[in-house]
């Protein structure tokens, strides 16, 4: 018997070029780290010196702030200016810096205790701060004005997205720098973001770090978290996970959800701290309970995989759903997986497709690949290779290795596109370079058969070995075939048996047949028909026709089992029913 070698995404090759279809569906969950995207309002403290101001002045200041609390967002700026002017006109000798800080502390507290949404609160607070800064600058020479200190620490301003032209971005940068140089922590953080993203200024990570550090030193949580991100990724500073964790922890202790999520990721991955899934879950839960979508997704992932918590698909779905309701693409993809596999929810391919599509349209490569798989296999949608190809291309273009393999498969088999082995090799090579075992195995098959590349057994063995070393059963089997046949390596039955055993132990039916053959014929192991039968039986139980035929042969000839024509016929019939012509010929001869 010639040993069978299996290859690509849908299976491959062997005796008489027989093909075995083994489609691969890849559904992947992943952790999300969030930076630069949200802010939490941090109120300035009430200055102690203001308590020395007479009761009427203090009451007027608090009343002014109170009236502001009832003003719509669009009128905050003008009403702030009116309130300040009225206050200064009524009490010309008041310390204006302290008065403005009192107004800010009172107004901020009212906002935090209001029923407004986070976005509405941030918009009002940002507008208020801008107007107060203008008032301070206009009155900087007033005889009672003290040093130009900030009214806060104010909260980080949300990074503005209205300005689109380069000139407006430049003006935005200059205004932010002006505020930052006056000591406003929020502006310092925002200036760091602008340098980090090259917004209105040449991109400069070192400058970003400089400004994040200034804001972080004032205790601004979002700046501490952003500075942690820079250390975590070695941007503008030497990479240092321990410092990153310290900064994330400081911000998390202030209740910043982003930092709590990021600290969870550090524990999850054992970066800068001892790996601890339970700690990761603890931080994800704190952030998720504040409504942070990325943390909700991550918590769902932990429940889905039983990491740091008992495995619970229903809870995973619950957290994925909360995050998906906010448009989190990773959670949408996670829900797609749960519906596709029927975990935590009734299996529903149509719903899986719906969630994959939502995530895919946001550009999530994993979801694009998964949507391609659904089109390729006609699950939840009408089978459509061209559509599958389209989604694989989108994901592959983003560098997703499994999508590159799937795209290579489409080119190799002419599905949704004219067959092109060279293109298939190109995509397999890109995925193999990322270390994906399946791609390495497929590339080995292309070299073994000279498809899209010059035939080269040595290169085939090289790629099979890389994939086999990662534990891929198909590659282990194929490497065994190369050793058994002396292709690309010195012929060595013992080595062949070693690799067949590894693959067979993982339940790969074709490897179990190949291992049975080695025992039946005493190749690389002592001859042992009983062992051969044992391996043939395991493969036959998986429905492999070749194994069923071999088992029939063993019963017919009493090898490793008592001779039994009835059992032989039974196994031959099962093989013949699957189209095994050799088994059918034996049955014809027996009758």
Biggest sheet statistics = none
In terms of DSSP E residues, the strand content is under 5%
Series of H and E elements? HHHHHHHHHHHHHHHHHHHHHHHHHHHH
- The number of helices is 28
How far is the N terminus from the C terminus?
25 Å
Shape: elongated
Task: Explain what you see.
This protein is mainly α and 591 residues long. Among the domains are: 46-147, no CATH class; 328-398, Serine Threonine Protein Phosphatase 5, Tetratricopeptide repeat. It is built from 28 helices and no strands. It has helices spanning 55-69, 76-90, 96-112, 118-138, 166-181, 185-197, 205-217, 221-233, 241-253, 257-269, 277-289, 293-305, 313-324, 329-341, 349-361, 365-377, 385-397, 401-413, 421-433, 437-449, 457-469, 473-485, 493-505, 509-521, 529-541, 545-557, 565-577, 581-590. The longest helix is centred in the N-terminal third of the chain and has 21 residues, at 118-138. 50% of the residues are buried. The model is unreliable at 4-40 and 140-164 (pLDDT under 50).
